[in-house]
Amino acid sequence: MTSIQPLEFNGSTFPIELRRNKRAKRIILRICPKDKAIRITLPQHMSVKKAEDFIHSHQKWIEQKLGLLTEEVSCTHLSLLGEKYTLKTDTLRRKAHICHKDRCIYLPKKSPTLALQKALITYAKSSLMDICNDAAESIGYKITGFSFRDTKSRWGSCSSQGKIMLSWRLILAPEDVARYVCFHEVCHLEHMNHSPAFWMLVASFDPNYKRNRKWLKENGNRLYGVI
Ligand SMILES: [Zn+2]
Known about the structure:
Blueprint: E1 2-9, E2 12-21, E3 28-32, E4 37-43, H1 48-57, H2 59-70, E5 77-80, E6 83-89, E7 97-99, E8 104-107, H3 112-138, E9 145-149, E10 156-158, E11 163-167, H4 175-187, H5 196-205, H6 209-219, H7 222-225
Parallel strand pairs: 2-4, 6-8, 9-11
Antiparallel strand pairs: 1-2, 3-4, 5-6, 7-8, 10-11
Helix pairs in contact: 3-4, 4-5, 4-6
């Protein structure tokens, strides 16, 4: 194992570990949340210089990920599907927990932002997948797979194979808005376009779709500043 210059970020030093792997075909970069190290796997004969260049060109991405590990959560409240939750630190916890009864989100002391993000993704999966599955079933389709991402360019997509991708950040939007995006993607199972027939089907699920669409256009950016 070779090591290269550690990365300085936000007043902390993050070690960079280099490993070589015969089977690796390209450089693989991983951030290890446990020991806050950056792990780089290099193909057998690639130069260390290439790894350094790679880190340099991905510095922004790395810093964003490291930020999640080091940053304190900056807000005290979060709105999930339009319901207000209070954020509290619970030193005994190792994972974040969303308590719907108390309307509280309990966060661990260590890496609270990362823990919060994980809990939000889990919540997004549990609530949005049901909405999509029910809607699909009602028009005689079956969704073949889901993925939840943090996309900047779109809130959702639907492939011709019936796979639906949604941004987990929809959980931070009002419930009607999140539901609209689910309906929108489900309607693509029937119409792979934005034809009048497509919008008629969307309207059959959500008569207020125009309002919800407008909300996303005008306020969607705000869902990124929160966490
Ligand atoms: Zn669409």
